[in-house]
Amino acid sequence: xxxRQFLQWIETAPAGARAxxxxxxxxxxxxxxxxxxxxxxxxxxxTWLLDDPAPEVRFALADVFARRRDxxxxxILSLMRDRSEIAALVVAHSPLIPDGDxxxxxxxxxxxxxxxxxxxxxxxxxVAAALAEVAPAEVCAELLDNAxxxxxxxxxxxxxxxxxxxAELRNRLLARANLPLAxxxxxxxxxxxxxxxxxxxxxxxxxxxxxxxxxxxxxxxTLVLCGQADDDALPAFVEHLRASGQLTARLxxxxxxxxxxxxxxxxxxxLTAQDTDTVAGVLATGREAGLRALIAGAGLPRRCQPxxxxxxxxxxxxxxxxxxxxxxxxxxxxxxxxxxxxxxxxGRAGDEDIExxxxxxxxxxxxxxxxxARRFVEGARTAA
Length: 384
Prior knowledge:
This protein is 73% helix and 0% strand. By secondary structure, the protein is an all-alpha fold. α11 packs parallel to α13. It is rod-shaped, with a radius of gyration of 32 Å.
């Protein structure tokens, strides 16, 4: 009887009063000790109210049921297809919406709905992947800010591909502790490319000087990432560098000059299509003929062979096993030894011109010396 009276009254009531009464009826269905018949009648009335022309009425339904696990699911599934401000309320909170429907809404919905999905608690990996694939930057920013979203490596990689040029999203991605090295490197590369047009402000008007500045900055960043990689992650990162065309002789020279011996060994193994144990054996013996054959097989320029051979032999003489990176105390003496050998080689008649390689080694030695000085000063300050 009460439900019938409600239905008679609501047909002529103003929209605001209808919305208030709808909210009260929804709460009564959830909390009041209704008889089975009254409960069924109330649910029928609530279902009928889905067709109310006033959005305030349908919003009242969404407001009561959005967070409830015991809400009538058919109401939720209907409200999620309502106008955006109503649908967003249930889409953001309701635990009753299947992932398949959320994925459809992520692909078909407007920005309001996509943002509501991005803010969901315990957002599943498939739904997060759908947003990463199609949502605009502002939605993906909210997705990255959602600590409860399950973002897989694939989704992070896709976000990096789509928004590497967006400084705000790039910073959000780089701030994630679990970001894979390959994705982190892709973002740093994009940052370098973005600076290319403006680097003239930093280094002058010479295009060649600008290109060198940016290339060195990117190489340094790449090697920092290599130093942070554990033995399980590094092989995949080296493959990423090879696939992206960034596993260059220049990078390997800089890696050698910084003591990144794991990177050197893995790169030579990958470039020669040999297993790491075989390459480690060649490096450990230090025989010049074997080293030259290994370097040539890796496709590195022939003119770089003296540098690599000298460096590998110097590290071997220092007792480095090439299975871990060299310590700073070892790197500087090795570079000085390599520079001396290259100087002697450059002075012999008939040898190839290696002056540019010698300059690069001397530059790396200077970097090592400055790093030693910084460590000394920091240690002295700490002791004081």
